[in-house]
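HUMAN: Now follow token order:
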Amino acid sequence: MSTEPEKKKKMMKASIPVEEYMYPGTVDCQGCGAAYAMRLALKALGPETMVVIPACCWSIIAGPFPTSALKVPIYHTAFETAAVVSSGIKAGLDIMGKEATVVAWAGDGGTFDIGVQALSAAAERNENIVYICYDNEAYMNTGIQRSSATPWGAWTTTTPRKHPKDRPKKNMMEIMAAHRIPYCASASIGYPEDFIRKLKKAKEMVGTRFFHVLATCPTGWRSPPEWQLRIPRLAVESCVFPLYEIEDGVYKINKKPRRKLPVADYLKTQGRFRHLTEKQIQYIQELVDANWELLLKKEKFGKIF
């Protein structure tokens, strides 16, 4: 007879599809959160999926033609064009009468910065695509340079220890919600069931669907590879990275920590924050608390459009 913990474990396993659409032996770094995010995404979306990948870590992981890390079609494109190329592919499929989910798969550099103009245009037109940003909070593929997704106070090679990033992280969820698209969702590889549930929901929708996924980068975050899932869980439990969705203008927080952890518990797992003083950590805690309270108010307020 199964014990309660065993039953719970079986139920959790059952919620993640067993099918694999990603080949083993890929060239990603040990503990790469972006690779695990792709694996989960394809499990949720299934074989009738086409993936558009701009310049990013995943353009290397996926492999050069004719090799491929995925069991679904891939289209490599320029850094700034993931959204517009995905829109064109989806239009072509519609003309041919073929059904497939077209996914733009880009990093934070290709989403928050270089690709934001194409993404904004696609969202304004409400193109029928799924856009997934795997966010490792810097330009990791080209040498760990800061992006607008890099958190305040973080070390990168262009924001060194004595001069860390002095601007807050850009809020892409709110930027995308302002386009009044059908669906925006944050997700974490530390909570795979939540990510898969949201993707399955989004798959059945029509229009632009945006995902912001926190994906660990041990190389850039200066963290142990074996903490691939531990760190993004801590990000959620400390409210550094809340899990929520905005469906037709309605906010819903998917996980409210029973015991909100101090931000320091998250920061101390990563060498990129090792230089921070107690005063700076307290400042980050205040920023996180303010953002969390604002999100709670948005959920309580109800429909925003």
Observations:
- The beta strands are 49-53, 74-76, 101-107, 130-135, 183-188, 209-214, 244-247, 250-253.
- The longest strand covers residues 101-107.
- The mean pLDDT is 95.
